[in-house]
Specification:
Residues 1-17 have a biased composition (Basic and acidic residues). The protein has 352 residues and is of the alpha/beta class. Helix content is 37%, strand content 16%.
């Protein structure tokens, strides 16, 4: 029933093709769907720094308006509340012709968060991406999809190159996100292949930094919040699984480079930091920062939790001359300091 409803809504809200050209008085705009989220808010800020006019569209499902505090009074910034699963807001459709670029970062991205309403997660990726692609097509705008390392699933190939097709379960609890992102990629490539839209696809690996939500449930935010509030650090499984963590400013620089590059739309690009560590080692770093002995509480490993993950970034190096610059020790310290300064108060992190 939800899908029928979504299809009906889509038929009614398809933007007109051949939208009028931007007039001289109207500056062109960049749309950032998911712009109030952790990565989205940093992207909006970086685009404003480049002198762009930014419209941030966000449902605030897993994001936070406080991420936009530093942006709301900046010239050229506008926030519009809306869920891309529903019809796009009129204030966006009316100005379709003014958008020159559309970034799609709209989706809950933390496993516990995207599993709260799996159907909505899938629809965000499929119906939501379709709406934004249609908008891009009508506007003649370039579209960038933020896909994910989760398209590789629990990978047999290591490190993961873009050619690797993945080891993904469509029956497991992560499917709403990883299969949803795979479908969003397929849709995006079809818009490209049929010449309807110019597209770029970034596959984002684990990213961390200020603006992560305190209750986000991801490992970096969980462990920092626990360390700051003197509670044991939760390790799922034995902590020997690996991840490779990229600081958010590096990632955002990569997204902007990719959007403005000549990389063809059918070539997804991994963006992540190839420095791989175990989750147990990450806990050691964070405990050392807090100056507390490392007290650990072991919990069961979630279903389908990937054992190893590390991006091969040869393609990003070659095509974008991009690579991460911020080492883990520096990025973690900045993130730790941000959590320490910003998110204190009664009940701080009490749910973790
Ligand atoms: N993890 C953990 N403790 C936590 C949260 C996560 O040990 O409090 C583990 C999780 O099982 C996974 C890794 O840390 O192996 C990264 O999890 P996260 O949710 O940050 O992102 P994922 O890479 O799984 O999408």
């Amino acid at each position: 029933a939800h899908l029928d409803e979504a299809r009906a809504r889509r038929r009614n809200t398809r933007p007109e093709r051949n939208a009028p050209m931007t007039t001289k008085q109207e500056k062109s705009l960049i749309l950032v769907a998911g712009g109030a989220g952790f990565i989205g808010s940093h992207l909006c800020s970086a685009l404003l720094d480049r002198g762009e006019q930014v419209v941030c569209l966000d449902s605030l499902q897993t994001s936070n308006l406080s991420n936009l505090c530093a942006l709301e009074d900046r010239p050229g910034f506008e926030f519009v509340r809306g869920d891309i699963v529903d019809a796009l807001p009129a204030s966006i459709l009316e100005r379709a012709h003014r958008f020159k670029q559309i970034y799609n970062l709209a989706c809950a991205a933390s496993p516990p968060q995207y599993q709260v309403d799996p159907e909505h997660t899938m629809l965000t990726n499929v119906v939501g991406t379709d709406r934004l692609l249609r908008l891009a097509s009508a506007a003649g705008a370039r579209f960038l999809l933020t896909s994910t390392s989760e398209v590789y699933g629990d990978p047999e190939a290591h490190p993961q190159r873009e050619e690797y097709r993945g080891w993904v379960s469509c029956t497991g609890p992560r499917a709403c996100y990883d299969e949803g992102k795979r479908a969003a990629e397929a849709l995006t490539y079809d818009f490209c292949r049929t010449g309807r839209t110019e597209v770029r696809v970034a596959r984002i690996f684990n990213t961390y930094g200020p603006h992560m939500h305190v209750d986000d449930g991801r490992v970096v935010s969980n462990l920092i919040v626990q360390a700051l509030s003197g509670r044991p650090l939760t390790l799922y499984g034995d902590g020997s699984q690996t991840r490779s963590f990229c600081y958010v400013s590096d990632l955002v620089r990569g997204l902007i480079l990719l959007m403005n590059s000549d990389v063809t739309g059918l070539e997804p690009v991994n963006l992540g930091n190839p420095h791989e560590i175990t989750v147990g080692e990450l806990a050691e770093h964070i405990a050392a920062m807090a100056g507390t002995p490392r007290a650990v509480e072991y919990r069961p490993l979630p279903t389908d939790d990937p054992r190893r993950r590390r991006p091969d970034i040869a393609r990003a190096r070659e095509l974008l001359a991009w690579e991460p610059k911020i080492p883990l020790a520096i990025g973690l310290q900045r993130t730790f300091d941000w959590f320490a300064a910003t998110v204190k108060g009664p009940g701080f992190g009490s749910e973790l």
